Each structure stands twice: as structure tokens, then as C-alpha cells.
Amino acid sequence: MAQFSNVRPMGLDSDTPAGAAARWPDRSHGEQPLIIAIAGGSGSGKTTIAESVVEIVGPRYVALIAHDAYYRDQSALSLEERAQINYDHPDSLETDLLADHLRRLRAGESVERPVYDFSTHTRSEETVTVRPESVILVEGILVLAEPELRELMDLRVYVDTDADLRLLRRLQRDTIERKRTVDSVLQQYEATVRPMHIQFVEPSKRYADIIVPEGYNPNAIGTVSSMIRNYLAERSGSTVDS
Question: Considering the chain, what percentage of its residues have pLDDT values greater than 70?
């Protein structure tokens, strides 16, 4: 794989066939959607990168799925009990449902993605239809930590951002978007976010084909977008316009 400024191709371990990153994108899936993982710690900038790639390449070519949408519904519990759940542990997510959705998308089927309410820790009765576009981006802190998801990915990207910057971004997001108090965000960070990052998220970096340093990174966005557009152009035999 070519070298890009501020983007580091990674050596692959036994979980990934040697040279897989250098061969991407291949044509082994024919007309099936290409699936790309964008992982990283909470507040790393992975969501911004994923959304920027969709905007650049175009939503008619790229569908975006957040692993966060697949948090388990906790409506059977009291609000106090819901607040005690470790939402940074893999068990808090219905990963098998996401994996099933990705397989169905690859088979050319549309799926109904859950909608999760972070303020109440419950799932909405509404869903969002995701169509089998040419490329499916899957982003989340644990998408490379789960073997069932890793085996479905054609390209694995990890956004590597310093812990202090990630915490600042999480504080801003959770207090503004999710209406939480600063104290509650800091307590959760100390109790679960940091320990789970160390146990699950950071180790998953070794499975990445590309490491993106410094969080939000225009060079990384341009690199991934260019790879996707080149792939789509090769597959269609024409230039891809966003």
C-alpha cells in the first residue's frame, strides 16, 4: 500500500492474511458492497472522519452504520439501573445483529438499523433503512475488537488519538448533545471508558490495515475517500462523481 502523509499502514498479524491491506481493494466480492471499518476510542474523531468520507464520495455510493446504534435496549430496567450498565463493554452491544445486517447488505438486501436514545438508554420503535450501497462504512469503538465483525471487513482503519483530547471531545459531546452533567461524564470515564479502552479498544489497533494518527485528519479523509473512489471507478469502468 502506498505511503500517505499522517497515515500509517500497519503490519498485519495472524488474524489477517499477510498482504491483505496491500491488495485492497480487490474484486473478490464482485458487485457486492465493500465493507470498511473505522474504529478508535471514544472521542477519537472516527465519526467525523466517516461522515466526511460519505460527504466526499457521496451517499448514493456509501452507507454509514454506527455500532452505537446497536446498543441493547434497556427499557426493562429502571433509569437508575440503566445508568449502572457498562456501556463500553462489548456485551452492551448487540453485535450479532450488526453482523447479520452486514451479511444481508453484502447479499444485496436492505436492512432496518435500530435507533438508540442515549438519554434514556432505550431503543426507539423507529428504525432507519440502510440500503446495500457500493460501500458500507461501519464505525465504532469496538468494531475491530469483535472477531465476528473483523472477518466481514475488507479494510480496517483505526483512528489513534491522545487520551486527553478524546476526553475533552467526549465531555463536549455528552454535555451538549446528550444533556449529561460534567460530573457524570467524568465518573463514567474513570469507571468504564478508560478501563475498557485499555482492555478492548487499544488492543484492537493491531488488527488495523491503516492507522490514522492525530484524530481528525484531512489527509486520512482524503486517502480513504480516494481509495473508495478509485475502487468504484475500477468496478464501474467510469469516473465516480459525488
Answer: 84
Q: Where are the domains of the chain?
A: 21-232
DSSP 26: -
213, 76, 28, 44: which is closest to 143 by C-alpha? 44
Residues β-bridged to residue 157: 38, 210
Rounded CA-CA distance 15/8 in Å is: 19
What digits encode the pLDDT tens for the residues 179-231? 788 998 898 889 999 999 999 999 999 999 999 887 667 888 888 899 899 88
Q: At what angle do helices 218-236 and 46-57 cross, to 10 degrees?
A: 40
Which class in CATH covers the domain with range 21-232? alpha beta
pTM of the model: 0.83
- DSSP assignment string, 111-173: EEEEEEETTTTEEEEEEEEE---SEEEEE-TTTTT-HHHHTT-SEEEEEE--HHHHHHHHHHH
